[in-house]
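Contributing new records

If you add data, match the layout below exactly. Sequence lines come first and carry their own label; structure lines follow with theirs. Keep one chain per record. Anything else will be rejected by the validation script.
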Amino acid sequence: MSKLAYLYPGQGVQTAGMGKDFYENSALSRAVYDEASEALQLDMKELCFEKNDRLDLTEYTQAALVTTYLAVTRELESRGIRADMTAGLSLGEYAAIAAAGAMTDLQAVKLVRKRGILMQNTVPAGEGAMCAVLALDEKVIEQVLEGMEDVSIANYNCPGQIVITGKTAQVGAAKERLEAQGARRCILLNVSGPFHSPLLKAAGDQLFSEMEKMEFGQLSIPYITNVTARKVTDAKEIKPLLAKQVYSPVQWMQSVRTMLEEGADTFVEIGPGRTLAGFMKKIAPEMKVYQAAKWEDLEKISAELG
């Protein structure tokens, strides 16, 4: 029996104008944006729909993306396109949990707003860095980093694309070693901190304290966690996993393999860009990934999956 999975990308896919056509055409999507604006005291229409300097700042980016993801999701669900499981890369995991029923949309948006502020402020600007390592086996990367302090793997995105994270100088030193080991390219990323690094453990701990004030519901479908790449069916696991996710590697390609093992054979990437579809081509090229980024995308998805 065919199973459908919703996929939500991480930070970096944000673009001015994202979700505007959903706001204009869907009452359900409009409600998500308007309620987020009121709850956060931020004008989400201005932040997401118009060119501005804040959209690329972590403390704003995360809330803007999750709001957009959930605005698209609610319209998609209203058309009968419902997932059997969900997964999200890094901040996308919050939308995945909301789509799986354990968080309200507002809980997800409020949490990533707090998460973005904590992640941006825990390590001073300039002291942390991230670097994408291309065309080098993850085992080689792990061996190179072994014994190096304050640098570790941040993301297992797909075969041939691993991201490292840590203190700026140590990431630079690791970059040189990895290039010497045969990496095709090592690209320093334009980010404001060493995300998914043990350096952010304090942010994870503070986020856990924030979540302890909230009561989550039960999961109506499973989601796949970044931390272990296993499916989660018990809502009691969510808070400790999300806290740990802040300072642990994102096991994305392992998560995709778990979804395949669980029977997923159709995927919808929700949000701007085609990042996760690109990763899928390297992980399981035979799988079809639909894109739900623009209003017209829903007509194709509804026709083929409805």
